[in-house]
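Extended Data, panel c. Modelled sequence:
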Amino acid sequence: MFLYMFGIDAQSPEESANELASLGISAVVCAPETRCIRAVRRAGMQAFACVGAFSLEKGDALCVDVDAHPRAWFGSGCPCDPEPVPRRMDALRRLAETDGLSGIFIDGARFASPSSGEGTQSLFTCFCPHCRDEMRRMGCDPDEVRKAVAGWRDGAMPLPPEEWFLFREEIIRRRMEEFVDTVRSVNPSLLTGAFVFPASLGRLVGQTCRSAASVDLLAPMIYRRYAEAPGTATLNHEYNALIGLFGRERARLLTGVDAPEDVLHSGFPPVSLRNETLYAHPRLMPILQLDDDKLAESLSAVRSAGAEGAGFFMYQKELLRNLRVLNSI
């Protein structure tokens, strides 16, 4: 399998890179700095960079919820805000010019999820003027969509309207394609990748097989039992937030998954990661939690689902011992 690590010891990248290579790692997602990239490549591995999709800066538009309140999420703004686009694309072009990179991953190319650090109400977006205009262009009535999402939030409807799902998917599809086109316009040889939500939660944030079809590598983040809050994108924290918002039955209706009891602390069993890997994409490389006491079982699960590779989040020297299981996979 193609195995990659998210992060490296930036203080001693040469020693760190050699150790990772000796453990069977093929690539490292690292800071786009000369010393780190050179160390990774000299150790015989590939170097990738990562860029945030909608990183929030002063003046950027926030998402707007069903009650007209502005909402940030995961340090991000509205995916439909046109003002930051030139700034973000310029930064992406400069990153794509970096010598020694084999590819670039995009992170956070989505809408808000239930377990956003800024609060669960960020989920019930986005109805800002930009998004309302896009809904109209797609043939939707933004007022009706907003009322339906509010009704879902408040318990009057079992599910959100289909138009809301389709809107989120379409906007993220466009943003993914813009990312890929921009990278390839600078360096066509660079691979593009995306960190995305587990399959059962992807549609909720606009990340589907369709919206991510343009990237070369797809990396669903399937952390089955993550300790730290808010645990954005992690199975146990996201499902715990969903159950807190809607109750267990409505969460199951929304995702098709019956989450384990006490999901926040018990997490998901390794076998469940197989279903969370089932994205229809030719180069599927899920990223797992390095701090997993059942890493061998988790790796076997994603491999049985047809994953071409797997990644580990994130680099901690004291946890590299967990990679010894690679010899048995």
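The mean pLDDT is 97. This feature is highlighted in the accompanying rendering.
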